[in-house]
Amino acid sequence: MTRRRDFLAANGGRRVAMPGFVLQVRPRDDGEPTIRVGFTVTKKIGNAVVRNRMKRRLRALARDLLPVKGIAGADHVLIGRQGGIERDYAALTAELSKALSRAASPDTAPHDKPREPRVHHGRGKGRGPRGGAHRSPESPKESIQEPGRP
């Protein structure tokens, strides 16, 4: 998977959180039995070297387990978590196997329910408009009037 819209669609599917990663699974409606997979590791995890190492580990996990235990005709997204880089590969393999079986089960636990994607409100870290001055829409504008003018 390479398109943003595919990742956003998968975000609306079933989520299974594990200590090393989060698995998102969403069945596709195109009728093809192929398994698609995508990987994301945010900048919260570390520098580029650490993030790329985490992505390589997630790719290796997917290569080993998805052909055997993946859900046919579904998109799978693996999101790296902070503890995933230090975890043993065998532990990550067991976690992915458990997550795939949970995602494939018809009964969904409350923490595995699909959720609405978050709305992205622009760029940056949410510090408000440039210049540091923030005026709420409810506050009236102050205007300077010259004497003798209404």
From TrEMBL:
Keyword entries, A-Z = Endonuclease, Hydrolase, Nuclease, RNA-binding, tRNA processing
Give TM segment ranges: none
Q: What are the start and end residues of every segment in region (Disordered)?
A: 99-150
Keyword hit for Nuclease: yes
| InterPro entries named in the record | Ribosomal_Su5_D2-typ_SF, Ribsml_uS5_D2-typ_fold_subgr, RNase_P, RNase_P_CS
User: What PROSITE patterns does this protein map onto?
Assistant: RIBONUCLEASE_P
Q: Tell me what reaction this enzyme catalyses.
A: Endonucleolytic cleavage of RNA, removing 5'-extranucleotides from tRNA precursor
Q: A single Gene Ontology molecular function, please?
A: 3'-tRNA processing endoribonuclease activity
Q: Name one GO biological process term.
A: tRNA 5'-leader removal
Kindly give the Pfam families that the UniProt entry links to this protein.
Ribonuclease_P
State which Enzyme Commission number(s) the record gives. Answer: 3.1.26.5
Where are stretches of biased composition, namely Basic and acidic residues?
Answer: 109-119, 135-150
Gene Ontology, cellular component aspect: ribonuclease P complex
Question: Which SUPFAM superfamilies has this protein been placed in?
Answer: Ribosomal protein S5 domain 2-like
Q: Do you know which PANTHER family this protein is assigned to?
A: RIBONUCLEASE P PROTEIN COMPONENT (PTHR33992:SF1)
On assembly, the entry states:
Consists of a catalytic RNA component (M1 or rnpB) and a protein subunit.
The record's family statement is: Belongs to the RnpA family.
Main role? Answer: RNaseP catalyzes the removal of the 5'-leader sequence from pre-tRNA to produce the mature 5'-terminus. It can also cleave other RNA substrates such as 4.5S RNA. The protein component plays an auxiliary but essential role in vivo by binding to the 5'-leader sequence and broadening the substrate specificity of the ribozyme.
Q: What is this protein called?
A: Ribonuclease P protein component
Organism listed in the record: Sphingomonas sanguinis
